[in-house]
From TrEMBL, chain A:
It holds the Pfam family BPD_transp_1. The chain crosses the membrane at residues 23-44, 87-113, 134-152, 209-227, 248-271, 291-316, 392-413. Residues 92-410 form the ABC transmembrane type-1 domain. It is found in: Cell inner membrane; Cell membrane. GO terms for biological process: amino acid transport. This is Putative glutamine ABC transporter permease protein GlnM. GO terms for cellular component: ATP-binding cassette (ABC) transporter complex. It comes from Ruegeria meonggei. InterPro entries: AA_ABC_transptr_permease_3TM, ArtM/GltK/GlnP/TcyL/YhdX-like, MetI-like, MetI-like_sf. It comes from the Bacteria.
TrEMBL record, chain B:
It comes from the Bacteria. Pfam families: BPD_transp_1 (PF00528). SUPFAM superfamilies: MetI-like (SSF161098). NCBIfam families: HEQRo_perm_3TM. This is Inner membrane amino-acid ABC transporter permease protein YhdY. The lineage of its organism: Bacteria, Pseudomonadati, Pseudomonadota, Alphaproteobacteria, Rhodobacterales. InterPro entries: AA_ABC_transptr_permease_3TM (IPR010065), ArtM/GltK/GlnP/TcyL/YhdX-like (IPR043429), MetI-like (IPR000515), MetI-like_sf (IPR035906). Residues 228-422 form the ABC transmembrane type-1 domain.
Amino acid sequence: MTTLTDPPKEQFRLSMLLYDTRYRSATIQVIALFGFMLLAAWIISNTIQNLEALGKPVEFGFFGEPASYDINQRLLEYSSRDSHLRAAFIGLLNTLVVAVLGCITATIVGVFVGVLRLSNNWLIARIMTVYVEMFRNVPVLLWIVLAMAILIEGLPAPNAFRGENPTATMDLFNSVAVTNRGVYIPEFLFTRSLGDIHFFGASSIRFDVSLDLLAFLIVLGGSIFAMRKVSANAAAKQEATGDRPTIWYIQLGILFVPMIVLMTALGLHLGYPELKGFNFKGGTHMRNSLIALWLALSLYTAAFIAEIVRAGILAISKGQTEAASALGLRSGRTMRLVILPQALRVIIPPMISNYLNLTKNSSLAIAVGYMDITGTLGGITMNQTGRELECVLLLMLVYLAISLSISGVMNWYNNSVKLVER
Amino acid sequence: MSDVSFVRTEMLPEQAPPASEVGVIGWVKHNLFSGWFNSILTLVSLYAIYYVLSGVLPWTFQSVWNANSLTECREIMMATWGSTHGHACWAVINDRWLQLLFGFYPSHLYWRPILSLVLLLVALAPVLYSDRVPSKLLIFSAIYPFLMPFLMWGGTIWGPISAALGFVVAWGVYSVLSKQLSELIGMIGAVVAAVIWWLVLSGYFTGAMDSILPIGIEAVQSRQFGGFMLAILLGVVAIGVSLPIGIVLALGRQSDLLIVKYMCVGFIEFIRGVPLITLLFVASLLLNLFLPPGTNFDIILRVMIMMTLFSAAYMAEVIRGGLAALPRGQYEGADSLGLNYWQAQRLIIMPQALKISIPGIVSTFIGIFKDTVLVSIIGLFDVLGLANAIRADTAWNGIYWELFAFIGALFFVVCFSMSRYSMYLERKLQTGHR
């Protein structure tokens, strides 16, 4: 007969740190942490010694000094007497401008191309394949530099627009001038403007918000809210009686009438660019660097987005389309109600990483002289002050913050459209 | 029962399909003109193709191949066709193609990069086409990483040999310690021994052997490297080294060891959150600050380190995707067979996870290869940097299409073949579970 006895009480021995799986993981982690801290301490001590030898301890005082360089493409007012911090802020806004513009264009072109690649028209599908392969397999920097070269060398100089018999003319009813110094487009002007509000007084991140724009946005928001209300009413009526009242003209009226009234009240008119002296004056001037960067980044990213869209649509099984047609849905509604909602779930995560890539690739602006955050903080400011360590680390932090916030926002959106699984 | 049958008993002969549904006509009807919308699309695209080709073809073929400057090119164009528009001046490529390919590498040593490239293909063959090439060639693939730097940079042969000896030392320490004590101690000992060898002993070894038996070839300075050769060099190193690092990082990120996991997550997310250009700034400006005072090592080596770290982070995410896609049962099956962690990874998990992530791995490869042009921003003369230099030259000032078409074609060929290879590999490894 056997008797149950307690197992012998285990004594902790040093060798168990290596041989017992319960303790071994702790051993490995402590060693890894120790090694990591050793490496970090080594790097930091080296850096301190090196910086001491060079005679420039880490400090950020240089941000207050005047930048004394100019930024020609900018959203806010800035002069070369402003501080380095202000220059970096202007650069950050420029990065965001090109990133937002690029993401919008890339999405539009990408979706268009992706859908056309699946077209049953053989020729169109092939042309789109050529476009996608051409852009995906050549570095984006090459496209950016090429776009810049074309804009500078291939377009007419402003003086070609002059004289009795000009060699170049303005486009779109004399409103847009495409020159080798950039594109001049009409700007919105208000005769009875509401003025601006200033934020943050005289600090480096001061900015103005146009009250006209604010009024426009408020009216637009109100109109959209009213439109949804009307549409909800119509739906309720359809539920109750079976008739859907015709509301599209009411909707259009709600959208446009308040806007037109507001614009007339503010005295909206367009300011056209005009040739004065050697250059165009008036209108909004988009520099070549911005256009080249925007164009190249969006076309390059669009090639990737096209592949994502195509894969997303292909991922939806044919049975879904067939089931939708069996239910009697027309092809447009099949796309809108059945295919797209499912395809979007596949499309969104890789789309996020492409938006991130576009934003990070916008740092290549430095190759064409567009003054984004890399061109200001990591370019001229760094070269003028000689503070490589501070500038590069800050630059990385800024990009890290941008990336993390984009992925945060997009992941939140992704979670809101994601299928709720068990 | 009568034997009258109301069902046809013999088959009718097959009728030929209508002429409009088969052959070229049928194909055109179905694929190009299947409706009014498709017909319009077809006509528009035909016009677009005509428009592009009518510009590009004469430009490409009615071109000048021999001239010393753009002005001379234009004079020849005026004399031949009566206009300077619509004709390429390939003379710039004819004049500078060696420079675009090799940078400032001494011209009497061009055989060395070419030999390295050929040997690279030989070394890659057993890896890429494992079913057609004898696997004994893998020994050469293992030697190649030490042979290539010797060929490219030249100098004494003892440098690469002592670098290789570091691995031999590590392996020796590992096999002794893991038998005597434990595997973990063996691994740690191997890493420590290798680091001590490389940092402390290898210098003496190289110096001593060099004075005893000086074997070497003419040394080439790093600043003479350039052109497309530099892109291939950086790309190959970054790709080759980042794959193992990426695997380790991915395993670390998936591991149960919290501290290791968060160290890997922090590294991966940091690298993926910043643009490559900032890491190249680190390579060109900061890396020397991080090392002991007085060390000043080569800019190309520094760029290689940063590009490797960059692509390792992306690789880790791709492989993590593959690991996450494996069904839980595979891990549990490995556990139930009694395999330990490394055995399970090597025999069960990794082969499947890597297979799933092939498309992602190859697109990371393509991405990193394309990203090598960024080194022109920190002042290395890679192919784009040279193109900018040529455009700044008074003789060729104003030329751009020809140069960029040439560079674009170089990159296109390499990247496109990589993506085709990945498709081939996917098909080959497809075990048909779909």
